[in-house]
UniProtKB/TrEMBL annotation:
Transmembrane segments: none annotated. GO terms for cellular component: post-mRNA release spliceosomal complex. Keywords: Signal. Gene3D superfamilies: HIT-like. Residues 1-25 form the signal peptide. This is CWF19-like protein 1. GO terms for molecular function: RNA lariat debranching enzyme activator activity. Residues 271-296 are annotated as: Disordered. CDD domains: MPP_CWF19_N. The keyword Electron transport does not apply. Residues 415-506 form the Cwf19-like protein C-terminal domain. One of its GO terms (biological process) is mRNA splicing, via spliceosome. PANTHER family: CWF19, CELL CYCLE CONTROL PROTEIN, CWF19-LIKE PROTEIN 1.
Length: 510
């Protein structure tokens, strides 16, 4: 599970430190011949020498079970735990080098979170540099002079985001600061405290602490009175004075320049919006050329411009997506949502394509509900070249959404597949990154199930569950190859679907 309450181990040996490597070699991880024993999430390079190990600034999977979070952003776990992060070291240059962050990066990260309604803070903040002045009002940091080392920008982030725990490790020294307040006594409503913990480098000869294990309940699940309890050793906020001085001497970055553009999970965008923001979202009057989707490496059966597409099955064409009946469909109205351009999975889609996918989902929901049905949508991003969102209707009076979820979970358990329910308000891009194999189920109620594929996966799993006796009772149609029909019959089914769907087809009204 992604950062479940009580299970989060801060993996600072890889996350924040000095690229120490031991045990399994770095090359073995890079070539996926070895995998980390548990899900591990890392920050990026801190110098030019290590930039090459992080091929995508926006985050990517480095090896099985090792994920690079990206340059900056927010990771939201399935439990509701929120983890903000900032990779690299502070830079005064714009644009910042690939191993650094700038004032602009900090402003965008802050804007994206502070604009959230009722924002109270984040559960965890991860940075490489220490925050400047963290030792003010606090216990000694030993040989580290906190007034001279560290980053002022990190101090600004910590003061703004109010993390319950802040971890850093670039100074290669262990330091657990006394907790500090996030409010002014008698002037502001009591808020939770923050704890800063610095960790040493892995395997250091001085045997300084480089691991920190703890149990945490997400802020969103805590009782408000419990959350704001003040421990006896709490101190004043170490950044308050330096923050006031900075505000006097430096004008803040204007949020309109380039607001909230997180590079891993962006909770403040509309559901499914792809990073980074497009110009119309930035308020920029200059139009920007839309990024073209990647081109297929060979013949593709689903790129609309491809000669391999069986166009007699197409039933609707939008600007960025189209609908087509499934070849050998489980039912006559088994339909696919497909991008016109070549995209491998939902998490690869641009914001324009995501927006149109959402419109098709809404139209299909209305269409099937008018016929007394609900749809089940699933995607298998495994051994596939072009995104296919399989949409299969199920009679409303035949089974409930709970019945459908239970059938998927039960059959997954039988095959030792861990199928997890993710929050309805969460987006698939919050639990998967480009290049990650996965299986995903979505009901028209918004309920979602997710499985991260780490080895082999049954190719017909989604269809087999829906065809089972518990749901559609069509086990003989579980394999699409046994359901192939003559071209004339397929064309007739497509014509019937196109006619019935026409009142709901937004593409015809565009």
């Amino acid at each position: 599970r992604l950062f479940s309450p009580g299970r989060f181990l801060v993996l600072c040996l890889l996350l924040l430190g000095t690229q120490q490597r031991s045990g399994v070699g770095q090359t073995e991880y890079m070539w996926f011949s070895s995998s980390a024993p548990i899900p591990t999430y890392v920050l990026g390079a801190n110098d030019q020498e290590t930039v090459s190990y992080f091929p995508e600034l926006s985050g990517c999977e480095l090896a099985e079970n090792i994920t690079y979070l990206g340059r900056r952003g927010l990771y939201s776990g399935t439990s509701g735990l929120q983890i903000a992060y900032l990779s690299g070291t502070e830079s005064q240059d714009e644009p910042a080098p690939a191993y650094s962050f700038s004032a602009k990066d900090v402003a965008e990260l802050k804007t994206s979170l502070l604009s959230t309604p009722n924002f109270k803070g984040v559960d965890i903040l991860l940075t490489s540099p220490w925050p400047r002045d963290v030792g003010t009002f606090a216990n000694s940091a030993g040989e580290i002079d906190t007034k001279k080392c560290g980053s002022k920008l990190v101090s600004d982030v910590a003061a703004s985001l109010k993390p319950r725990y802040h971890f850093a490790a670039l100074e290669k020294a262990y330091y657990e600061r006394l907790p500090y307040r996030n409010h002014t006594v008698l002037q502001e409503t009591p808020q939770h405290v923050s704890r800063f913990i610095a960790l040493a480098d892995v395997g250091n000869t001085s045997k300084k602490k480089y691991l920190y294990a703890f149990s945490i309940v997400p802020m969103s699940l805590m009782d408000p009175a419990e959350l704001v309890k003040q421990p006896q050793d709490v101190t004043e906020n170490p950044y308050r004075k330096s923050r006031k001085e900075a505000q006097k001497t430096k004008a803040p970055l204007c949020a309109e320049e380039e607001p909230a553009c997180q590079f891993f999970f962006d909770l403040n965008k509309h559901q499914g919006k792809k990073r980074p923001s497009h110009e119309k979202e930035r308020g920029n009057s200059q139009p920007k050329q839309a990024k073209k989707p990647p081109q297929p490496t060979g013949p593709c059966w689903f790129c609309l411009a491809s000669p391999e597409v069986e166009k007699h099955l197409v039933v609707s064409i939008g600007t960025h997506c189209y609908l087509a009946l499934a070849k050998g469909g489980l039912l006559p109205d088994h339909v696919l949502i497909l991008p016109i351009g070549h995209y491998q999975s939902v998490v690869d889609l641009s914001s324009e394509v995501v927006e149109e996918v959402t419109k098709y989902k809404s139209a299909l929901k209305e269409f099937f509900r008018s016929k007394g049905k609900r749809y089940v949508l699933f995607e298998r991003n495994y051994r596939s070249q072009h995104l296919q969102l399989q949409v299969i209707p199920v009679p409303l009076d035949h089974c409930t959404s709970e019945d459908i979820k239970e059938s998927f979970i039960a059959q997954a358990q039988e095959q030792q597949i861990e199928l997890l329910e993710i929050p309805e308000h969460s987006d698939i891009t919050q639990v998967a990154q480009p290049g990650t194999p996965y299986f995903y189920v979505e009901l028209d109620t918004g309920e979602k199930l997710f499985h991260r594929i780490r080895g082999r996966f049954p190719l017909h799993f989604g269809r087999e569950v829906l065809a089972s006796e518990a749901l559609l009772a069509l086990p003989q149609r579980a394999d699409w190859r046994r359901c192939a029909a003559e071209r004339a019959e397929e064309a007739a089914q497509a014509h019937a679907f196109r006619r019935d769907f026409q009142p709901f087809d937004f593409a015809l009204r565009a």
